[in-house]
Amino acid sequence: MELIYCVEDDTSIRDIEIYTLRSTGYEATGFENGKAFFEAIRTRMPDLVILDIMLPDISGMEILTRLKKDPATLHLPVILASAKGTEFDKISGLDTGADDYLAKPFGMMEMVSRVRAVLRRSKPRTETLIRAGNIVINDATHEVIVNEESIELTLKEYSILKLLISNPHIVFTRDRLLNEIWGMDYDGETRTVDVHIRTLRTKLKEAGSCIETIRGVGYRYKDNHEKETV
Known about the structure:
The chain is of the alpha/beta class. The chain has 8 helices and 13 strands. Strands 2-1-3-4-5 form a 5-stranded parallel beta sheet, sandwiched between helices. A 5-stranded antiparallel beta sheet has the order 9-8-7-6-13, with helices on one face. Strands 10-12-11 form a 3-stranded antiparallel beta sheet.
């Protein structure tokens, strides 16, 4: 049974989130502030966090930043929940490392649906090595090796690389990448994809040239080496 932490200072909202999650098969615990949340994760790590942005002590964005800087919580899935539903707020949250964004007011069944989707995307699969050219991906440990050197990637960068390498020669539009990696339909600015691609290329060094830009369309993996899975 997956454990969900709900960080929400509004007692009524927090209680209904916990009730709904427990009613749909999850273990759920709530916290009214960031201090209580950080104390809890030192004792037990959850499978996912639903995180409100407006909190009384530490802002949700600051909590998210701290989670993504700590190797122990780097890959912990986070869904932001806030009355701030502007395009800028969504971009900021996703760029900081959030896996999804719920704009208040939201329905409880929508929340559960997004929780299921994020958990499904983040769940480790069977140990599989994917080789493409001089890049090796261990899908069980999320380790990426380039020219026998381990490369540290964020979860989003890893997911983009794996998606492109697993579908050689297929062109992915920015909108499709947002939908596949971030799990949301997005009709506005897509610069967040370009930022992640640029950072990914830098980390891959010479191997970064395998990610080809198709002008006016999107990106694809262009290496001619055959992908093999063992």
